[in-house]
Specification:
Length: 485
């Protein structure tokens, strides 16, 4: 697939799938005409993308649409439809196919997850497609439709001159379907194995899984599973009425890469439509000869401080922590700094719960200078910073915030995102200025919000990304053109 193209090939998608699989990640695959893109399509694709780590859409060609829908369709040419799909953040690649069914592509690509709209059932899925998915070991997820949103309805209203339907308020809509790896899987395997399907020419030799688990999403917050034989390695006991909490995944090592979607503005990087770069987007790690001297300010548990320390110890961050400063005398942060043998300072914050008095600001500034700190990192520092810190360390104070700024500034940002019905949120590394959570964004990492998530589920998912993203930004500080003194 060329980097300036929005159309890829089945073989390129197969390679992409294998790349994700080698990193323990999942490719989501779906197909359709997507003739007149509407809100139902957008929400469906956003939900599908949240089921894994990359989404590829198989798009019916113009000839295929005519065969399915009649000579009056499609409304839009296949290249236009592909370009519109690739403009969606949820879509990593588009492959156009001429056949009336997507069976051959399934056989070649072998997706981890296959998504289809809720107007289908297991029984109404094409038999050939279903057997190909069984052979590939794919999880089939049927996602709920958005009522009243369809291309056919839109065309009918246009011809009749009718007004568009009034959309339902988004606040209470379910955020997103559960990731396939988190979907309930039946313990029993009562049905016989399905008939085998001949392997396609381009399919690499691999052990044939017995069958697939099928999660049918029927109601917001509920999953009803229907089962066909499943490899024993995939069978897990779980409650079939609710989606289990998602455990934060372990940080990746340098050799494994950074398995997630992030965006960054700190390093010059060519914008492409490559499915690989759209899915990984990792900030490159570049050790420097001279370690970056970091000063840490925090008020609480110090988990991001520990993440920085781990990255230094693992060789992923060429830096040293010069001093740890806290406004909470008994904080876990200071205790951890003491255990690590680091210089640590408690600064009396005064009576104001948010604003540090000028005396405390000056003391922190003098401590940072005395320890020759180049970059100040806020790790859960709960006070508003002012001069002389802001002016003395202009563009050298960095904070990590648990939302995709500019959305959800302030406290408990993950709770705000959950209450607003967001389908994704994340964390933002940004420079600190006089506006709370208003400084220049350096990098962001996204996480999905699943149906049934609690605030704690979202919090820990974000925190896992924070522990990876912050060291990456610090490691790339100099080469990104940011000042050190």
């Amino acid at each position: 697939m060329s980097q300036d193209s929005w159309i890829t090939t089945a073989e390129a998608v197969r390679d992409f799938r294998d790349q994700l699989d080698a990193e323990g990640r999942k490719l989501v695959f779906t197909n359709g005409c997507f003739d007149l893109l509407h809100a139902g399509h957008v929400r469906y694709l956003r939900q599908a993308r949240a089921l894994g780590d990359g989404l590829v859409v198989a798009l019916n060609s113009d000839a295929s649409v005519r065969a399915l829908k009649g000579e009056a369709r499609p409304i839009n040419h296949q290249e236009d439809r592909a370009e519109i799909l690739m403009a969606l953040q949820s879509v990593n690649g588009v492959v156009i196919f001429d056949d009336p069914r997507v069976t051959k592509l399934i056989e070649i690509i072998r997706p981890h997850v296959y998504a289809k709209g809720g107007d289908y059932t297991l029984e109404t899925l094409d038999a050939g497609e279903r057997e190909a998915l069984i052979k590939a070991g794919s999880t089939i997820c049927l996602l709920p439709l958005v009522p009243g949103r369809s291309t056919t309805n839109t065309i009918g209203r246009m011809r009749a001159g009718e007004d568009a339907p009034v959309p339902a308020p988004p606040k209470n809509t379910p955020p997103v379907a559960a990731a396939a790896d988190d979907a309930p899987v039946p313990v029993s395997v009562p049905l016989p194995a399905a008939a085998s399907v001949p392997a396609p020419e381009l399919e690499p030799t691999a052990p044939e899984p017995a069958a697939a688990a099928v999660a049918v999403l029927q109601e917001p917050g509920k999953v009803v599973t229907q089962s066909i034989p499943l490899p024993l390695s995939e069978i897990r006991k779980t409650n079939t009425q609710s989606i289990p909490p998602v455990e934060p995944r372990k940080p990746a090592t340098v050799t494994q890469g950074i398995p997630r979607v992030i965006t960054t503005t700190i390093a010059p990087r060519e914008e492409t439509l490559s499915i690989q770069s759209r899915a990984t987007g990792a900030v490159p790690l570049s050790p420097r000869v001279l370690p970056l001297r970091i000063g840490v300010l925090g008020s609480g548990q110090g988990t991001n401080f520990e993440a920085i320390q781990r990255a230094i110890d693992d060789g992923r961050l060429n830096a040293e922590i010069a001093v740890v400063i806290s406004d909470v005398e008994g904080s876990r942060l200071l205790a951890k700094a003491r255990e690590s043998g680091l210089s640590r300072v408690f600064v009396d914050p005064g009576p104001n719960a948010r604003v540090l008095p000028i005396e405390a600001q000056e003391e922190i500034y003098e401590q940072l200078k005395a320890h020759e700190v180049q970059v100040v990192v806020l790790t859960g520092f709960m006070r508003v910073i002012k001069d002389p810190l802001l002016s003395g360390y202009k563009d050298r104070i960095v904070n990590i915030h648990p939302s995709l700024l500019p959305k959800f500034k302030g406290k408990a940002a993950w709770v705000q995102a959950l209450e607003e019905g967001e389908v994704e949120t994340g964390c933002t590394v940004h420079l600190v200025n006089a506006e709370v959570d208003g400084g220049r964004v350096l990098a962001q990492a996204k996480v999905p919000i699943h149906i049934g998530d609690t605030a704690d589920d979202v919090f820990y998912r974000i925190q896992a990304e924070e522990h990876l993203l912050l060291p990456e930004v610090l490691n790339n500080w100099r080469e990104s053109g940011l000042p050190v003194g």
